Structures are given as C-alpha cells and as structure tokens.
C-alpha cells in the first residue's frame, strides 16, 4: 500500500519524459540558461541584502535579539536568535542582521529540491522545477531578503516537507520510518518557533495522518513526530503561559474580527496580492497543480487546506497580509512543479519581473514618488534623521525623545542616538525582559505625519532620500512623560 504519491498515468515515466523533452525544447542550452538566470538572480539578491538599508520591522526584531527570550508579543523567538547569531558574526549591520536568513534560504531551496525529487522520482526533474519557480517569485526574491519571521518559517517548513517525504517513502518500502517522522516533527516545531501560522500546516498534516488512506494513524512514527513537535514548541508555550497567553491571543484574536460588508474587498486584495507576489504565471501553475494533486493521495491539499480556510475566513473581518500566506508556499510550489507544464515560460517571465525590481532597488532608475517607492519609504534616510533628531533635542534643551510608534523607535535605536535617550510608549516594550521604565520632566514627542501637510507653526522635520523628501515627522515639547528606555 502506498502512503505517499501514486503518480497517475499522465505523470508516469514515459509521459514525464515526453513532457520534459517538449518543455526543454532547446535541450541543454535552454536548461543552462534557466539555471544561469537563477544564479544571476541569487547574486543580485545578495547584493540587495548587503546594500538595502534596514527597514523598521527588521530593526524591531534586532531589538529582540538584544533581549533574548522564548517569546515576544508578536511572534516566537526564532528570528531574534537568528539575528543574534548573524550580528555576532558580522556586527550590527544590515548584512549581519540578514546573514542567517540568506543561509536559511539556501537550505530551504535544497530541502525543497530533495523533497520534490523524493515525492516524484520518475525523471521529470520536479526538484529543479520547484527551485526555479521559488527563485523567480517576488515574495522570495524580495520578501525573504529582510530578516523577518517568514524566513525561518519557510526554511523549517521545507525541512519538515523533506523529512515527510522520507517518512512516506520508508512507509511504502516497509522500512523503519520513525526517525524521519521525528525529524519532520522537529522541523514543524522549529517552524512554529518562528511563526504561529506553522501550526496550521501541522493541522493539515495531522488530518492527512488521521483521515488519509493508508491508516498512518496506526503507526508509531507519526505520533512520535507529533510529540517531537510539541516538545520543540514547548518553550514558546511556557513563555505564553507566564505572560497571560499574550502572543497566542494577539495572533489568534485576529481571526474573529467581523466586517462582512468589506469581505469582497479583502478577498480581492488577497488574490491580487498573491498573484503579484508569486507572479501571475507561477500563481496559476501552483493553483492548477494543487487541484490536480487531489488524484494522488491529497497530501498537498491537506497541507494547504486548513491555512487556506483560515485566511479565507479572515477576509470576512480584515485583510490578510501578504506575508501570512508563506505557510502555503512549500506545498504550492511543489504542486506547481509536479503537476503543471509550461514551467519554463513562468520562470522566464517571473525572472524578468524580479530583475526589474532588483534594478529599481539598486539604481532607482524609475523616478518614483516616495509613497510609491517602498525601498525609500521604508529604508532611506534613517541615519541622517537620527542625527537631526539628536541636534533638535540639544537645541530644545532636553535629552530625551519619546514616540509611541514601535517601528520608529526601533529603527532609530539601530541607528544610534548618541547621548539622547529614546523612550517608547508602545505596550510591546512591557514584554521585553530587561527593559526599564523611566519618567522624564520634559522631552520631544515624535510622531510620524506621513506626507503632511502640517498646520503652520508646527515643529517638524523631513526624512530624506538624498535631497528628496520621503516622510514628514512632527516634534512637540511635552512635559511629565514616561516610557520604556529603548536600547
């Protein structure tokens, strides 16, 4: 009895050979061009990671890395640990903050390749196709460059997927499989240590084990894997329990918001965002492949189903942020690579789109306005702004700047404020161990005013990209303020 995929006639060795020859067309030259293009994109990705300034969310996670603990209000601990390792090796630089993510993305590509080859061993180069599809998506090419929890989430899900392929192969062959199942559980637990959405992937896998064909629930391996996942995730649960379940309630509470009158808008935004970030051709291939995979055991549908249902339900109350959908991507890319043809066209068009985006990031060849240029809007001018704020504080005769914007406080702390003390009033700081609360008699209150305008006489300054204004901030001298010291 087969516990894994049972390729249909249309995906057998002969058919796959014909499809491979037809798809390659130009033989080795065509394949080499595709892989050469992917290597070029990876090199450009490295250049972007080195040159792109740190964005506010990355600075926020960098602050976490200076206060290591098992959980935080927004996410579990993994990204903080990764940044701590990277900055230990390379210093408090954008490359140091992103270093582990760059290594992790390479490991994710390797594990996705190996999982695809083991699930579909009949000679269609599914592993190569999966890696090529991943490499040309805007979400991977741009979204996984910043150091965010999505990077370790994706890497550990690919590890879990590869381990699962080994477990199912061993089950088919009648070989011992418990080691593969435990490794799968550990990978899933580490993914949940990165981002809570990994639990939805685990729910899908549990559904496949309990209700899929083959009676896997009778085997010891899946249960050992589940125990392994819980043990690895246990520190995050303990931290939540000690802090009133703050992290789980914050993330889980979003699902129960209710604004059905805007559901159509949120659903369109979700679909349009994923079409753009996967690139349209890749997105269509992945969705078509996922639907076709139902004939071969339904594993990929099980892995995607719970998260997809949760996201669709969430559109009844609020928008689904584009990066939340990362939990679906390993299975989606595998489905697109295994069950769809015309991958070469998708790779070429996606690669061209990504090349244009990299060119814009590195050269700004399009004269976009500040609100249309995300690189400038998020990353430009922070160092100069920190210096300007320090000078304004000295002129005002105060030594403290206060803001209630956690991202703004974080990115200014990364730049360094000299002798000026930075206080944050956001409730997030109460969950960071080692943060001290301070009261001051007078301070400058800093607030993001986006693009203005401000009323006449308002004390303000612009953050600039060179000489071009990017963002407007107001300053106000206030008395008797308190907050957490950001450092």
Report on the architecture of this protein.
With 487 residues, the protein is of the alpha/beta class. The chain folds into two domains: 355 residues, no CATH class; 109 residues, no CATH class. 60% of the residues lie in helices and 9% in strands. The chain is built from 20 helices and five strands. Strands 1, 2, 3, 4 and 5 form a five-stranded mixed beta sheet that branches. Strand 1, helix 20 and strand 2 form a beta-alpha-beta unit. Helix 4 packs across helix 5 and helix 13 packs across helix 14. The longest helix has 26 residues. It is globular. The N terminus is likely disordered. It is found in: Cell membrane. It is a multi-pass membrane protein. Keywords: Cell membrane, Glycosyltransferase, Membrane, Transferase, Transmembrane, Transmembrane helix. Its main location: membrane. This is Glycosyltransferase RgtA/B/C/D-like domain-containing protein.
